[in-house]
Amino acid sequence: MIESEHLYIHVPFCVKKCRYCDFYSKTDVSLIPDYVAALAREIRLRSQLNVSPPKGNAATVYFGGGTPSLLGPRHIETILKALDNAFSLCRETEITFEANPGTLDEIQLTSFQHLGINRVSLGVQSFDPVYLSLLGRIHSADSAVQAAEKVRAAGIDNISLDLIYGLPGQTVEHLTGELGAALNLNPAHLSCYMLTLEPGTALHAMHEQNRFMPMAQTDQVDLFRAAAKYLKACGWDHYEVSNFAKHTSLRSVHNRAYWQMVPYHGFGPAAHSYALKSVADGAAVYKRFWNAPDLEGYINALKSGRLPASGHEILTLEQRRMEYVMVGLRTSMGLDIRTGQHLWQDRFLTVFQPLMDDLENNGLARCQDAGQRFVLTLDGWMRLDSIVSSFVQLI
Asked: pTM for this one?
């Protein structure tokens, strides 16, 4: 069995590729049965590589994509059984399922709930038909509302909604209207992402052809501030730059593992994993590895009893330090000074104290927990990229 508390399943299927998305996916849904069989084999083969018993039950399972809601109950049952055999799932395991509002029905959702799915992340993105069309979504605003109602009727109350903002012509008033519409659905969690143009996407190509103009950065900052202040006024917990929880207990356990650099295992084509291992002298080795983004190659390899093509890297101390800063500053927990001191051999404060003092004096950061945590303020988060760059220059 593999030692890991956090598991990711990449489901590489979509009805149609959205214009903004650069995640690996295919539209040939006829390959779903072969994919599920291959996925179960991958989980079993990788579990046999490590004979050490797990330290406990898996804390989280996250079905991402792609569009996981294109899988049927029997597919999900097969995958969860394979994960249970390798990792030991339990009632407390947070099992999140991403879903497109245009691909859900009540019978399917009820079956998912009976199988153990206890958290659903709905890719709403917008309630505005103009923006839904621009983004290339297959659902309407009404179907998004209906999807949330179906999820709750199936007995799943832990609902997260994804929204995209920073769209051309969007105003503060429009964005707060979108957030209000989202809150009317009584979600437990919101992920609010600024639109970014990723190479290889349709929107990126449209931009290069002068058919699409992104919003100016100054206007994006105004929208970020407006969203944060609106949700704070509604009592929401802004615990990561793009993520809000109705209560601290409703934060995404799975995503927090990523932000805290906790080991996790990913399965499926294009899935990434992060592992911590010890070598003979007791030193820690941090490794990141991934499957190739090749569905057909993935299926064929596992049909032959082989693990799929993959890549890997051993993280250097400098890489770990940079990731610690980049990830930590994104969260409301900020940088843990004790962890920093360990990573820098007791020189973290020597290296960064002048920069930290300057940021604090300018209202961009503050110290918490008796000086043991360094946390960016909302104004600091609005300058996150430049602040991270200032830290990285000193590494």
From this structure: 0.95
The pair of structure tokens assigned to 174 is 């429009």
Q: Amino acid identity of 333?
A: M
Region label for 380, one of left (φ > 0), alpha (ψ between -120 and 50) or beta (otherwise): alpha
CA 356/CA 348 separation, integer angstroms: 11
> Would you call 285 helix, strand, or coil by DSSP?
strand
Tokens linked to 391: 């830290």
Distance CA(64)–CA(312), nearest Å, equals 21
Residue 323 amino acid letter:
E
Lay out the sheet containing 119-125: strands in order across: 237-240, 243-245, 189-194, 159-165, 119-125, 94-99, 60-65, 6-11, 265-267
Predicted confidence band of residue 281 (pLDDT cuts 50, 70, 90): low
Instruction: Using CB atoms within 10 Å of the CB of residue 338, give its burial: 0 to 12 exposed, 13 to 18 middle, 19+ buried.
Output: exposed
What the chain holds in terms of domains, given with CATH numbers, is 6-259 (3.20.20.70), 318-393 (1.10.10)
Is 52 a residue whose pLDDT tops 80?
Answer: no
